[in-house]
Amino acid sequence: MSIANEELFLRLRPRLVAIGYRMLASVQEAEDLAQDAWLRWHEEVEVSGAEVAKPEAWLVTVTTRMAIDRLRTAKIRREAYPGLWLPEPLLMEEPTTPEKARELADDVSFAFLVLLDCLSPESRAAFLLREVFDADYDQIAAAIGKSEAAARQVVHRAKQRVAKARSSIGNQAPPRPQEQLDLLQRLVQAISKGNFSDIQALLAEEAQFLSDFGDIVPRLGKPLVGGRRIAQMYLASQLRHGTNMRFDLTRLNGEWALLRYVGDALNSVQMFEIQDGRIARVRLQRNPEKLHHLEHLAHRQRQMA
Description:
By secondary structure, the protein is of the alpha+beta class. The protein contains 13 helices and six strands. The chain has two domains: 3-168, no CATH class; 177-304, Nuclear Transport Factor 2, Chain: A, CATH 3.10.450.
């Protein structure tokens, strides 16, 4: 491939990966999607010698269409998934301003990605292209294979469905990063001290704890509900592991998260939804296959310890 075309693709690649991740909620699949877009770009531009008038629109369309197909297949696989399926955590560059941090948390948080599961693959693609990537309706129409009028309807209905799903779970805008950080620091301190009342005080009365263990057994059979039960689980974990367990704070998916280590090994990642100053929902990612890409972070943190 010519240097100019290669440079063009590399410049657009982050956008393609971003589309893939928001569609598939998988870091590796998003990377694979971008690689496949690269191969199709190479075949279209270099092999066939075709002229692409709008390279960015062409690449976004191709990537979106492939993502729709992959998500249809993924939804079938997830029906046989052992236990609850949750997204892969995403390590991102730090936002440059508080405003960018809040904007990022709005469109890539665990809560948002889970919320998007209420949409069909086609509707999810149209919604994301319009609401997150600010695509024009003609580009959305090309990506989902419909007329522009039909694309407008798909986006409109998707927005309604997302709003309904958000209201049904009482989903609120995330707190400011510093507020979230302060609360999680208090949670880590309370767990480390084994202070049951302090742990429980940070959890909403009807808090939920949801977990993705993949093939690991034993696993939680169903979500834990209730701040008291979740606090008991945190305390039991502390009593079991003691000083061999630690929590580190880092930013994943645009929000503060807890990385739990047992010994030197990264054991799990916990993401949080906070409402009215208390933890309303915890999502724990325990599946090793979904934590593999964070191992370099764990290694770096061990070196710094």
